[in-house]
Amino acid sequence: MARVYYTTPIYYVNDKPHIGHAYTSLATDVLARWKRLEGHEVFFLTGTDEHGQKVEKAAQDAGMEPQAFTDQVSQSFRVLAERMGYSNDDFIRTTEPRHRRACQALWEELVRRDEIYLGHYEGWYAVRDEAFYGPDELTERDGVKYAPSGAPVAWVKEPSYFFRLSKWQDWLLRFYEENPGFIAPGSRRNEVISFVKSGLQDLSISRTSFKWGIPVPGDPAHVMYVWLDALTNYITAAGYPDTGADRWRFWPADVHFVGKDIVRFHAIYWPAFLKAAGLEPPRRVFAHGWWTIEGQKMSKSLGNAIDPLALIEEYGLDPLRYFLLREVPFGNDGDFSRAALIGRVNGELADTLGNLANRTLSLIQRNCGGRLPAVAEAAPADADLLQALAALPAAVAGHLEAQEFHLALEAIMAQARAANGYITAQQPWALRKTDPARMEVVLRHLHTALRVFATVLQPFMPGTMAAMLDQLGVPEEARGLAALATPLPEGRPLPPPAPLFRKIEVAA
Ligand code: MSP
């Protein structure tokens, strides 16, 4: 049994959650659930990023004190986590005392190791990204300069502490070389490597022009740069600075899930901060792509940000969870459209998986007295199906290990389609009169197929798959991956089946 640690980014509390936020955490949740199903010890962390100029400004705009404002918005991310069914083990807020302690301890450690010096910052800053940019990275329109992200930048000039980032350039390049899996997908890795090769400047890590942040130890006129503060959350939750803490066993993190916009912070600054403080860098940073909405960029000004809670209300939680990870290769950008969601739900969940379950379980109910038929030898006609089923959990595991959520789902769906082909070819409903013994064999194999599908789909659709496993008569303790090796005893009574997925009506 291994110990694994997965994290989501911590979300800015400047605004209420949208589908992009739900997405990063969903991917993390599915992997965390999968690892638990494999029997591993998992620590899954999410939370909120509450300091900095951007949040301070959002609080001012709302006419509230920053603490009261962040209490309120952070709560909406907690509600999102519950409603999306995330199985996070902790929810961290950067305004908590444990986090202030960790940040200040990390700072002091960096000072002790001569990694920090006092200077003066003069350059471009984008509040929206909470990021510094070099002049060569900017473009100008109508007299306003913009960062590559599209965020406007402003000139900042203030006293500042610096982290000796430039010193770590060669080490970082060696680290990427020696750990080819550290940044995924590969396109992001290349981007990061060429950015580092182009030369790293020392990084400004404190601000003096506003107050909403963690005070620098010994010099409270400075607050810590919000990205140093934010990244530290990953070790705060593991108990830092108490490296004897029980949770510290989980460090280093196995995967930091992030969006493509925040790769630079996670893949450059973060390993450098850690290494400089004598701590181990994380094992992997996976950057997913961005969602557009019906072909348009999601933005506050367009007012098209999609509220995940409204989608849950409309389509149900599990269809939404399935769609988000099924539709777009994880790592690519994708477009959210209602038509695509409805197509997947109706075609794959209702018609393929739901129908297979319903047909099989209704036949067992009607023709086998509602009791599970006996395990039987595979006839030649059954061999393909059974072989593919036996290989499925390992194939899914391989895809999830590489964060290929879409390929995992595709592999499962391909088998569900094959099982539908099998039921059509074997016609168990016709065998009832001609060969009832063979009918029982076919239905038992179909039951096996459904059990495998429901087991491996639990991380994606926990609620619906629990209902499916109930209908299949699989007891709670037999729902892990290892339990698939043990067939359920024959004769087990199965409850009457009920539809698992509702087909979404499309208005004509
Ligand atoms: N607070 C920082 C992260 C600090 S982690 C130490 C932050 N927060 S955020 O709220 O702006 O974004 C959080 C995550 O949401 C990012 O991974 C980002 O990529 C993701 N998304 C925001 N909009 C998105 C889409 N339109 N589509 C997909 N994901 C997007 O950055």
TrEMBL record:
Keyword set, alphabetical order: Aminoacyl-tRNA synthetase, ATP-binding, Cytoplasm, Ligase, Nucleotide-binding, Protein biosynthesis
Short sequence motif named 'KMSKS' region, residue ranges: 297-301
Domain Methionyl/Leucyl tRNA synthetase: 5-361
Domain Methionyl-tRNA synthetase anticodon-binding, first and last residues per copy: 373-505
Motif 'HIGH' region in this chain: 11-21
InterPro entries xrefs: Anticodon_Met, Met-tRNA_synth, Met-tRNA_synth_2, Methionyl/Leucyl_tRNA_Synth, MetRS_core, Rossmann-like_a/b/a_fold, tRNAsynth_Ia_anticodon-bd
Superkingdom, taxonomy of origin: Bacteria
UniProt entry tagged with the keyword Lipid metabolism: no
Catalytic activity: tRNA(Met) + L-methionine + ATP = L-methionyl-tRNA(Met) + AMP + diphosphate
Enzyme nomenclature, EC number: 6.1.1.10
Chief subcellular location: cytoplasm
SUPFAM superfamilies membership: Anticodon-binding domain of a subclass of class I aminoacyl-tRNA synthetases, Nucleotidylyl transferase
Gene Ontology molecular function: methionine-tRNA ligase activity
Subcellular location: Cytoplasm
Leading EC class: ligase
Entries under HAMAP family matching the protein: Met_tRNA_synth_type2 (MF_01228)
Purpose: Is required not only for elongation of protein synthesis but also for the initiation of all mRNA translation through initiator tRNA(fMet) aminoacylation.
Family annotation (NCBIfam families): metG, PRK12267.1
Family: Belongs to the class-I aminoacyl-tRNA synthetase family. MetG type 2B subfamily.
Subunit structure: Monomer.
Protein name: Methionine--tRNA ligase
Annotated source species: Paracraurococcus lichenis
Lineage: Bacteria, Pseudomonadati, Pseudomonadota, Alphaproteobacteria, Acetobacterales
Gene giving rise to this polypeptide: metG
